[in-house]
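$ ./design --mode recover --in tokens.txt
reading tokens...
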């Protein structure tokens, strides 16, 4: 699993990096999950 977030960070914007880093802790897994899709959508537009 730790290898997955790194790949996402590479293909995604740096903003997603902070969102993926939070879930790694396990406490903010739910919050960042909702932000991840939002950040990707903004970048797509």
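writing sequence...
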């Amino acid at each position: 699993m730790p290898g997955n977030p790194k790949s996402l960070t590479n293909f995604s914007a740096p903003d997603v990096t902070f969102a993926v880093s939070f879930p790694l802790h396990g406490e903010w897994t739910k919050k960042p999950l909702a932000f991840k899709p939002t950040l990707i959508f903004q970048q797509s537009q």
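exit 0
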